[in-house]
Amino acid sequence: MIVDEFSLKHPDNGHRRRSSRILPLDSSDPMFVQVERLFSKGWRHRQKPRPVIQGIFKILSSDESLEAYAIYKSQVQAFNLLSRYKKGANEQLCFHGTRRSCALGDDSDQLFLCNSAECSLCCIIRGSFDIARSGDANSFKRFGAGIYTTSCSSKADDYYSVGRSRQQDPQDLRVLLLNRVVVGKPHNRRHNATHMNQPPSGHHSVVGLPGVDLNFEETVVYHNDAIRPAYLVVYGPQSFAERPPLKTQTDHHPLSPPLINQKSLSRSTSKAHALLSALFTTPLAV
């Protein structure tokens, strides 16, 4: 059973590279436009220069993973229906910054997940999030052991890092995950609560509101099936604005013949003409 449009088996995703888990979106794709708008709107740190998006990829998952997410979402929907919470499952798109040890997404050829255990990015795309790894990169957990996301892309950017095998350069491309999150009925907090390992009874998430202990919003869920990665956003400093955007699968058809180098063709023709002239006394017509 194909669960939704993020399925590896969905017919709309059939033109992806074989074994690839990410699918480049064309800049004219409505989802590219929506994700780009969310990223731009969410860049709220005034002291951080606004970056340029170089590419957006749709993340594909197995039907088993998507089915578990769909079941959890329907359970939250049913619970909130009974409790008369009008927003139902309250699914939202939220950003998450993490460690990348490879070059996934840097260009149209970097479409395959690496096998490094320290590359949290590829681990998440391959098998989604795992609360057991909460705090691997940052020991401080404002609302306890959970999966942290935010609508503030510039805040998520603070948590992007590179693995030990790479050297971080401010001019390099960076990546963020944009995720589908079942927020359900949130418990709003303005103060830290590092002891938490689940939301209060009757709630499905914790939302940290800015004003006291936070400068920017964050949303925390405490169930692995409350979140699935949906898009990979690749971006860099303004200097990347002059570079061409990443090519999508539709920019170059795999069956298209290679372009012919006219200079090489001319040189080859001249050599052949000279060889034939040497073999035959009758001049060749040109």
Structure characterization notes:
There is one protein chain. The protein is of the alpha+beta class and 286 residues long. The protein has one domain: Alpha-Beta Complex (Phosphoenolpyruvate Carboxykinase, domain 3), CATH 3.90.228. Helix content is 22%, strand content 19%. It is built from 5 helices and 11 strands; from the N terminus they run E-H-E-H-E-E-H-E-H-E-E-E-E-E-E-H. A 5-stranded antiparallel beta sheet has the order 1-2-11-7-3, sandwiched between helices. The longest helix has 20 residues, at 63-82.
Keywords, separated by commas or semicolons:
globular; disordered C terminus; Phosphoenolpyruvate Carboxykinase, domain 3; 5 helices; 5-stranded antiparallel β-sheet; 4-stranded mixed β-sheet; 286 residues; alpha+beta
Question: How do you describe this structure in short?
Answer:
It contains five helices and eleven strands; from the N terminus they run βαβαββαβαββββββα. It has 286 residues and is α+β, with helices and mostly antiparallel strands.
Strand fraction: 15-25%
Looking at the overall shape, the CATH architecture is Alpha-Beta Complex
What best-fitting shape do the alpha-carbon axes yield?
A: globular
Mean pLDDT reading = 85
| Order of the strands making up the biggest sheet | 1-2-11-7-3
Number of DSSP-assigned strands? 11
Give the oligomeric state of the chains in this entry, treating copies of one chain as homo and distinct chains as hetero: single chain
CATH fold topology: Phosphoenolpyruvate Carboxykinase, domain 3
Helix content: 10-25%
Question: How does the major sheet shape up?
Answer: 5 strands, antiparallel
Q: Can you identify the CATH class?
A: Alpha Beta
Number of helices: 5
* Helix-strand topology string: EHEHEEHEHEEEEEEH
Rg: 25 Å
Count of separate structural domains: 1
Termini, distance in Å?
64 Å
Low-confidence stretches: 250-286
* SS-derived structural category: alpha+beta
